[in-house]
């Protein structure tokens, strides 16, 4: 879900947008952070925060110390410490904003035990990084074949090489627990690298694969959504949606994340509505609740065996419920329903007949009648 031309050019800058990785096309800017503290100067005598946030592939981020006091800005490609080697990533946050990110995302962060930034990536590091990225797809297909040969019920969805190509992280999805010890032995003997397995959920897999949702836009998880919150069927009930799994489920097979977007607005609007399980008792019979329009403030009720719906305001419904508690029953719901005023709008009218296809035929016949001696083209040719 990124630009095909956003690899790298001379000097370590990405090609394509040429704006240090802050382009706004597709999912390239999914992990970007806007530095709203960039124009604020530090107080006198205070040194800049020496911790950087570096992002890698597959939404992976970590914090590193800039011990050497290198002049690093957001978007620079750096080489950082890794387990038995080094890794290459892109700097996403620097300065005081990195201090806020550390407090927010990593509360147990210990400054003295943090990994360090080795150097700003040179052309050799970038070439090795690009080479590792180009071999990941082939490595994934071979790993899938090894898993099928053993008979493991798992799906390897993505592979991430370390910057020095000494280690690879395999991301997989599975319904249950998988014993992949034999698979790791086979892959280590086949690929001659260190292997790390990470299980991800179906939502994370969809964010990596990408696609088009039912709304016609790219998936939120593959473009801008980074935190996946749990979605329950109660979100659909509050929004008066039909509980159809085929319509409520996304490409990941789970409930759509967009069900939570407007849930707070519906919950705030439903605070002034009475309970829907209470029936309205009238002389005609008991009316039950059918549906509710939260933003219009309308509740529809109907009687058993009838198709007519009675729109009522929440205030009117509360009045009927209070009268029922006192033992009173209204005659009918027609006295309480909302009286809608029908506004007739002036539509389009064909005043002078300008929409008629044959509107020029009458004028042509009149012209012919006025000039009876007019010679046609065929007669003039004969003469």
Descriptive terms for the model:
4-stranded antiparallel beta sheet, alpha+beta, disordered N terminus, GMP Synthetase, Chain A, domain 3, 383 residues
Walk me through what this model shows.
This protein is α+β, with helices and mostly antiparallel strands and 383 residues long. Among the domains are: 10-123, no CATH class; 135-204, GMP Synthetase, Chain A, domain 3; 273-354, no CATH class. Helices cover 27% and strands 18% of the residues. Strands 2-1-4-3-5 form a 5-stranded antiparallel β-sheet. It has a 4-stranded antiparallel β-sheet with strand order 9-10-11-12. The protein has a 3-stranded mixed β-sheet with strand order 6-7-8, with helices on both faces. Helix 3 crosses helix 4 (181-191). The longest helix is centred in the middle third of the chain and has 15 residues, at 136-150. It is elongated.
Can you summarize this structure?
The protein has 383 residues and is α+β, with helices and mostly antiparallel strands.
Please describe the topology of this protein.
Layout: E1 51-55, E2 61-65, E3 77-82, E4 85-93, H1 96-105, E5 117-120, H2 123-134, H3 136-150, E6 155-161, E7 167-173, H4 181-191, E8 194-199, H5 202-209, H6 220-223, H7 233-238, H8 245-248, H9 263-269, E9 280-281, E10 286-293, E11 298-303, E12 310-312, H10 314-325, H11 361-370, H12 377-382
Parallel strand pairs: 7-8
Antiparallel strand pairs: 1-2, 1-4, 3-4, 3-5, 6-7, 9-10, 10-11, 11-12
Helix pairs in contact: 3-4
């Amino acid at each position: 879900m990124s630009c095909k031309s956003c690899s790298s050019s001379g000097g370590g800058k990405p090609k394509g947008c040429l704006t240090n990785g802050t382009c706004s096309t597709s999912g390239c800017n999914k992990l970007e952070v806007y530095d709203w503290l960039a124009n604020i100067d530090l107080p006198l005598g205070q040194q800049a925060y020496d911790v950087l946030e570096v992002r890698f592939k597959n939404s992976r981020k970590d914090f590193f110390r800039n011990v050497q006091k290198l002049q690093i800005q957001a978007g620079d490609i750096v080489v950082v410490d890794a387990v038995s080697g080094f890794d290459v990533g892109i700097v996403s946050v620097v300065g005081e904003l990195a201090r806020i990110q550390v407090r927010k995302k990593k509360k147990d962060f210990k400054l003295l035990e943090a990994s360090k930034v080795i150097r700003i990536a040179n052309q050799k590091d970038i070439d090795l990084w690009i080479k590792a990225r180009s071999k990941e797809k082939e490595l994934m297909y071979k790993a899938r074949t090894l898993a099928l040969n053993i008979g493991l019920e798992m799906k390897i969805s993505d592979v991430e090489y370390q910057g020095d190509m000494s280690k690879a992280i395999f991301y997989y999805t599975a319904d249950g627990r998988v014993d992949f010890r034999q698979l790791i032995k086979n892959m280590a003997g086949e690929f001659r690298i260190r292997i790390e397995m990470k299980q991800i959920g179906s939502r994370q897999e969809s964010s990596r694969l990408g696609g088009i949702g039912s709304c016609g836009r790219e998936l939120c998880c593959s473009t801008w959504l980074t935190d996946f919150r749990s979605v329950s069927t109660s979100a659909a009930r509050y929004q008066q949606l039909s509980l159809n799994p085929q319509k409520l489920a996304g490409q990941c097979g789970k409930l759509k994340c967009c069900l939570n977007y407007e849930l707070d607005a519906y919950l705030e609007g439903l605070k002034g509505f009475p309970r829907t399980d209470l029936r309205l008792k009238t002389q005609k019979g008991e009316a039950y609740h059918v549906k509710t329009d939260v933003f219009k403030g309308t509740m529809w009720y109907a009687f058993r065996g009838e198709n007519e719906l009675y729109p009522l305001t929440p205030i009117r419904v509360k009045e009927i419920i209070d009268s029922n508690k006192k033992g009173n029953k209204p005659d009918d719901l027609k006295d309480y329903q909302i009286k809608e005023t029908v506004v007739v709008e002036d539509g389009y009218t064909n005043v002078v007949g300008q929409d008629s296809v044959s509107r020029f035929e009458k004028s042509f016949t009149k012209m012919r009648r006025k000039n009876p001696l007019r010679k046609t083209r065929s007669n003039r040719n004969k003469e």
